[in-house]
Amino acid sequence: MDVIIREGEVVAIEAESYAEEEDVDALALKTRYLERILGKRVAKAYIVAVNISKEALKRAKELGIEAISGNTVG
Question: Among 9, 11, 58, 67, which is most buried by a count of CB atoms within 10 Å?
Fold first, then answer.
């Protein structure tokens, strides 16, 4: 996970070649952990993937994580 902090705003980004539902859940967990460490809310979380499964896309929407991908698979 990469973290960008700019003007006090925290953004978390996870890059994958193929993102599955478990990857989205892992990003959500890492984001919560990061919030505890920094004592700040993560303003936005992104999962960026060449390919993403339909289940992962659905889960990202449920968790408020923005998914950016080239293709949706399955």
Answer: 67
